[in-house]
Amino acid sequence: MMGSRAGWRRRAAVLLLVAVSLSAVLATPAAAASAAADSGEAGRAAEQHSERISGSAGDVLEDNPVGRLKVFIYDLPRKYNKKMVTNDPRCLNHMFAAEIFMHRFLLSSAVRTLNPKEADWFYTPVYTTCDLTPAGLPLPFKSPRVMRSAIQYISNKWPFWNRTDGADHFFVVPHDFGACFHYQEEKAIERGILPLLRRATLVQTFGQENHVCLKEGSIIIPPYAPPQKMQAHFIPPDTPRSIFVYFRGLFYDTGNDPEGGYYARGARASLWENFKNNPLFDISTDHPPTYYEDMQRAVFCLCPLGWAPWSPRLVEAVVFGCIPVIIADDIVLPFADAIPWEEIGVFVEEKDVPKLDTILTSMSIEDILRKQRLLANPSMKQAMLFPQPAQPRDTFHQILNGLARKLPHPEGVYLQPGEKHLNWTAGPVGDLKAW
Amino acid sequence: MMKSLLPQSQLRRSAAAAAARSSGGGAASGGADGAGSDGGAGGRAPAASTFWFLLHALCCLVSLFLGFRFSRLLFVLLFSTTALYSSTSSSSSSAVLRATTTTTTTTTTTTTTTNTITLSFAATANPPPSTSANYTALDSAASGTSGHTQSHVVVGRHGIRIRPWPHPDPVEVMRAHRIMERVQEEQRRWYGIKEPRQVLVVTPTYSRAFQALHLTGLLHSLRNVPYPLTWIVVEAGGTTNATASLLARSGLTIVHIPFPDRMPHDWADRHATENRMRLHALRVIRERKMDGVIVFADDSNVHSLELFDEVQKVQWMGAVSVGILAHTGTAGQPRLSEEDKQNMPLPVQGPACNSSGQLVGWHTFNSLPFAGKTATVVGEAAPVLPRGLEWAGFVLNSRMLWKEAEGKPDWVKDLDAVGENGEEIENPLTLLNDPSSVEPLGNCGRKVLLWWLRVEARADSKFPQGWVIQPPLEVVVPAKRTPWPETTAVLSSELLDTKQDQEDRRLSRTNRSSRSRSTTKRKGDVQGQEN
After folding, report:
1. Are strands A323-327 and A298-304 parallel, antiparallel or unpaired?
2. Nearest 5 degrees, angle CA A307-CA B76-CA B157?
């Protein structure tokens, strides 16, 4: 008996010792293995053709938002969303279709909750850019009224808007200048962001520093480009890249800017005048059927500003592995905290456009190869796309990641009794009309 | 984005409304704003309104001549405040000033005036009609040195910056090309073949009129192959200087092997001889233990560069699809019946696969429509057809031929056992015990990677040796403008006289006779130039 008890204690002590030593032994090889794996991976990555991407918020491109936030979707009447699409299904194909697809994605996503009391974020599915002209271009003239009407609806029907004056709500406003709801920059600046959206988080494509139409805390997303169309045009990746600089698009907009100098702040015209004779620059206003294939055969793709600083060219360049040359002063690019754009693209100031050939040819080859490796990272390409149905790490998930990174909501979100931020009668008189 | 759609009426109305609001003298707005300004000025006394109308009309006329909105300039000069002018200090507009002076002018003269006017334009950095919001923005920019609240990117008209010499710099062009070379190298390394194997190209040839044509073409194709390459040229009738000099100029690694028999003039015999020459080359490869992928490139065939990328994938023996170009275009082309034309299959020889990508059979060239109409003698003007499966469509791994090689499959016959009894080796399938293990290449034979063609001149056709004209040909038609040297040491007067006589005689006769005369003459001259 005694012996067994003493033996038991001794056995326990031995077991404890063994456990400790084992854990020590296992921990160090695990650490060593992970260190070796890291260095090995770094070494292999140099041989491999893609590289991990980590932005200022860390290595967050591959995060999974499920479980990190909950989104409640307001149930708006059909006239705010479905009826618009039925009236004009072209809304599904133009570059502002992100708002429609975001709604569809959220409806079936795992972050959706049907209980608004446990929601972190509230989504209002109102399609403000679905008012198309006969030619298919969206007019923003009714958009402020549509948005206002939607907000009035949700603030009357549910208590959550008034609880925070919209600070935990987010809206998708992919139009030219976001929630300023105008395509002409001066008009957009004049209007400013819709007063009712002052506290809400805006998910938009427009981003320019110190601009009236970019609110702090907005999430910038890439413009919608149809992923199937792009994926149908892939060519073998060992096709040699034999075009140095590639661009297709307008340089002068003679319809709306006949004197020049207004469109693109003169940057595109400067591009044309300086480089139309340069054999390294394959730039023209053609609409070739091999546009996507040509981008895959180019080393640099120009992404200059147009009437607004953003364009689907950035998405296309990233998807096709062509280094984007971004010519738009002070532009804020999509998911800027998750994607380190300075390491991936080349930024050229508008005043430096005449020196563009010097800038591009004097880049070091290691730089260029590194950028190509970053672009080859599949997470990078995936983050720019809107596939249907949604796939992990695509733009929809990156938006949710961005929203999750803004959680938990800061202190001032919930209004004190009697505190009011929004002025429901601010803005041009025309906006106050009911819709 | 969709600005082209912008209805002009909207612009006009909003512009006019803004103009009316801000200036009060809104008639001084551009041609497009005409309708609005009329409305804006409607509430005035008739005299004033006609005055403004006339002023507006004058502005429109001036704009018509100058080509830009003169009224806008007027508005700017008359109604803008000094605060706007002080904002010229901003860097963008000063750059604009610089740029406009260096702008290369286009053809019309109006643009020159536009350039100078743009100086003051840029000062506003906001074209009218602008509203109070923009003014305050500009004021803050003017007052603050670097506006934290306002970005230095300003809306409005900017100059188009053009450098004084907008042409490419050759040093930069070279740098760009070097960049592209490195990028392509990396691409090959990442996505291309991991360990490129040497390509051993086997070509049977012999010296004849068309040899230079064929070998030059093949030479250039091979020079463009991005893999290490050895060109094994087997020459019928022994090695000749003509062939050797052609090969030496290629810059490739050459193995020039003589083959004792001469090339026969009969197509059937020629095919057989070529097969024996290829076997001879394979034996040499075996002896020298050359390592790589063996491609049979006949000198008259045309190869795409993708062929050489595809053959890197072969393990032991592969087959590619060969396009057969059998129709030698002559006036006397065999008339094929309609039925023949219907039944004519694709002129492709190669592997046939089932839906799961496995080799199930072979496509061969249907020669029935050509029965009896094909060429028998080399150089005859009739279609030359391939036989069964051509060697050109097969690719071997050289280790398959070695006596001992690790992993050598047992369905390969030993090379010594092949062709010893003098039997006809029609195609490389006879090298195998089991022809079903051939790998189909080129997307399972769907991609045609090379074209088979036989184009030859008659066996007795003459051509200058080495394609160098030696001695110089005699004059057929004198060059009219160069003065003849009267008498030189070389040309005696006798020769001159005979030449004159010839010319006179020729001019008095028909063309045909003179041509025949010259051919006979030439024939006599170039005796001994026969191949």
Report:
1. parallel
2. 20
Task: Tell me which residue of B257, B317, B302 sits closest to B284, measured CA to CA.
Answer: B257
Please give, rounded to a whole number of angstroms, the shortest distance from the CA of A242 to a CA of chain B: 7
Q: How would DSSP label each residue in A32-92?
A: HHHHHHHHHHHHHHHHSS-----BTTBS-TT---BTTB-EEE----GGGTHHHHHH-GGGG
Tell me the ipTM for this assembly.
0.81
Determine if the pTM surpasses 0.90: no
pLDDT digits (tens, 9 = 90+) for B113-131: 333 333 333 333 333 333 3
Scanning B149-208 for CB atoms below 8 A from A yields 149-153, 155-163, 166-169, 172-173, 175-176, 178-180, 182-184, 186-188, 190-192
The secondary structure of B446-497, three-state, reads CCEEEEEECCCCCCCCCCCHHHCCCCCCCCCCCCCCCCCCCCCCCCCHHHHH
Put simply, the answer to whether A238 touches B183 (Cβ < 8 Å) is no
Beta bridge partners, B97, equal none
Distance, CA of A390 to chain centre: 15
3-class SS string, B161-201: CCCCCCCCCHHHHHHHHHHHHHHHHHHHHHHCCCCCCCEEE
Bridge partner list, B229: B199
Lowest mean pLDDT among A87-96, B109-118, B161-170, B254-263: B109-118
Chain B CB contacts of A330 below 8 Å: 151-153
pLDDT tens for residues B232-253? 999 999 889 989 999 998 899 9
Task: Provide the 8-state DSSP code for A362.
Answer: T
The percent of chain B in helix, strand and coil, each rounded to the nearest 5, is 45, 10, 40
Tokens of A345: 């693209």
Q: What whole-number distance in Å separates Cα of residue B209 and Cα of residue B502?
A: 31
Chain-chain contact of B176 with A242 (C-beta, under 8 angstroms): no
A16 to each of A13, A23, B26, B155, how far by Cα in Å?
Answer: 5, 10, 93, 73
Q: Which two tokens stand for residue A384?
A: 């720019």
CA-closest candidate to residue B123, choices B147, B146, B96, B98: B96
Question: Which residues contact residue B74 at a Cβ distance below 8 angstroms, ignoring those fewer than 6 apart?
Answer: B28, B59
For chain B, the first-to-last Cα distance in angstroms comes to: 72
The total of other beta-carbon atoms located within 10 Å of residue B241's CB is: 11
Cis peptide before B129 (omega within 30 of 0): yes
With residue B325 as reference, give the H or E element that holds it.
strand B321-325
Strand order in the sheet with A169-172: A71-73, A121-123, A169-172, A201-204, A219-220
Indicate the residue of A183, A189, A238 with minimum beta-carbon distance to B3: A183
CA–CA dist A192, A213 (Å, integer):
6
Whole-angstrom Cα distance, residue B351 to residue A177? Answer: 59
Strand partners, B199: B229, B293
The tokens describing A234, both together, are 């892939």
The closest alpha carbon to B257, from B200, B330, B318, belongs to B200
Burial of A198 (0-12, 13-18, 19+ CB in 10 A): middle
Interface check for B131 against chain A (CB to CB < 8 A): the answer is: yes
pLDDT of residue A385: 92
Phi, psi of B419 (to 5 degrees): 75, 5
